[in-house]
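Input/output pair, single chain:
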Amino acid sequence: MAMGSYSSDDGADDAMMSEINMTPLVDVMLVLLIIFIVTLPVLNHSVKLDLPQASSQPEDTRPAKIDVSIQADGTVFWDKQPVDETALKARLAQAAEAQPQPELHLFADKNVRYESVARVLSDAQTAGITKLGFVTAPDTK
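Output:
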């Protein structure tokens, strides 16, 4: 008989069992599952909160828009009403003070002199208008 051998001389197979007995493991897991099922409702703590109520209506937060048009002869229109240079400066200053500041949409005829457009832009910058957009018409073919 050699040392460290697991076989005996009588021919019986005394080799070590290499499989894990799963029955005790399953039993323990089932007991733990039952413990958690029983104790979980006891551990359910609740905190009373007064949550705010929200309306489902969307809030329109877009600022107003003002249309400023310049015709080919240099006439300036404020929302389709003709205005002179002093009235334009006063309205621009009033619009710059409004909260939220309205958007200024500038419509200029394609034949208007650049001087007229530059004067309106300068007046808007002096008044403190920060939201200004140029509106163009698409090319019709």
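The chain has a mean pLDDT of 84. Residues 61-103 form one domain.
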